[in-house]
Design a protein that fits this description.
Blueprint lengths: L5 E3 L2 H13 L4 E6 L5 H13 L2 E6 L19 H10 L4 E3 L3 H4 L18 H4 L3 H16 L3 E5 L3 H13 L5 E5 L19 H6 L2 H14 L4 H15 L2 E8 L15 E9 L2 E9 L11
Parallel strand pairs: 1-4, 2-3, 2-5, 3-4, 5-6
Antiparallel strand pairs: 7-8, 8-9
Bound molecules: adenosine monophosphate (AMP).
GO molecular function: ATP binding; pantoate-beta-alanine ligase activity
Main location: cytoplasm
InterPro entries: Cyt_trans-like, Pantoate_ligase, Pantoate_ligase_C, Rossmann-like_a/b/a_fold
Length: 293
């Protein structure tokens, strides 16, 4: 049986444990989550275990990254189930601070990353990335890991955290991990639990549409054309598209015309009230160069 995981709920407790590991010269990884753990989270943990000798998984359903009218209250919570999964996965510490630990009376600070956060999810969810950046900064300062792992599932979030850590000189390496999918291609997400049977059957179309779009873009179909056709396909099937864009994979600025270099397609779409996101790397096909005569 795997050894019992230790659960730490206070900042001082977490700092004490990290100081002890530092004395032992252990390499430490942090995987921040909001709980309701699924195989997507577990893939991040597996990567953390490969890269470090001690692994902390934080569970904090961060109220400041949910907007007005979003699903903070309904967000799935299952601490007991999560602890069983973390024990099984060989995690050393489950760090589960409560809101009082995170927000002392008089709390007044926000971390805001300009540029990267203004479009896409940032435009549809005002304040979301400030909430994420502020809490991730706190978790990084509390746990002081050598590295922290974030999923490419939240691609805009991953880039935002990398920017923030570089700008604030936080001494941590940020690593991305690929998207884990269900067998039918749907990106794993705690929010998939909200989908009813009909919506769940429809949901993989999001990923299939991105795949088909990647093929068309590689073949030289202009971005505007491929995007409009794909959005129409999703809307016709019953999705409400929030955004569907082909962007530069570093700056997230839109690209247009025929692809000349690698890009990323990002999508957010609603099925009923459930907002799903997904993304995929795209690149132009290497065309055979004409041989010089
Ligand atoms: P969350 O609990 O949804 O805040 O996610 C915690 C971390 O897990 C974030 O870095 C997410 O990007 C990552 N994550 C969530 N779903 C997946 C997935 N399907 N594949 C890979 N990483 C994921």
């Amino acid at each position: 049986m795997a050894p019992a995981i230790s659960t730490i709920r206070t900042v001082t407790g977490m700092r004490r444990r990290v100081a002890q590991w530092r004395n032992e010269e252990r390499k430490i990884a942090l995987v921040p989550t909001m709980g309701a753990l699924h195989p997507g989270h577990l893939s991040l943990i597996a990567k953390a275990r490969e890269k470090a000798e001690r692994v902390i998984v934080s569970i904090f359903v961060n109220p400041t990254q949910f907007g007005e009218g979003e699903d903070f209250d309904a967000y799935p919570r299952d601490e007991k189930g999560d602890l069983a999964k973390l024990t099984e996965a060989g995690v050393d510490v489950a760090y589960i601070p409560d809101a009082r630990q995170m927000f002392a009376p008089g709390f007044a600070t926000r971390v805001h990353v300009k540029g990267l956060t203004e479009r896409l999810c940032g435009a549809s969810r005002p304040g979301h990335f400030d909430g994420v950046s502020t809490i991730v900064t706190k978790l990084l300062l509390q746990c002081a890991p050598d590295l922290a792992i974030f999923g490419e599932k939240d691609y805009q979030q991953l880039l935002t955290i990398k920017r923030m850590v570089a700008d604030l000189d936080i001494p941590v390496e940020i690593l991305g991990a690929p998207i884990e999918r269900e067998e039918d291609g749907l990106a794993r997400s705690s929010r998939n639990a909200y989908l009813n049977k009909r919506q769940r059957e429809l949901a993989p179309l999001l990923q299939r549409t991105l795949q088909d779009m990647a093929y068309d873009l590689a073949e030289g179909r202009p971005v505007e054309d491929a995007t409009a056709a794909s959005a129409f396909r999703l809307e016709s099937a019953g999705f409400k598209v929030d955004y569907l864009e082909v962007v530069d994979p570093e700056t997230l600025q839109p690209v247009d015309g025929v692809l000349s270099k690698p890009a990323r397609t990002l999508v957010a779409a609603y099925l009923g009230k459930t907002r799903l996101i997904d993304n995929l790397g795209v690149k132009p096909k290497q065309r055979n160069r004409k041989r010089a005569s």
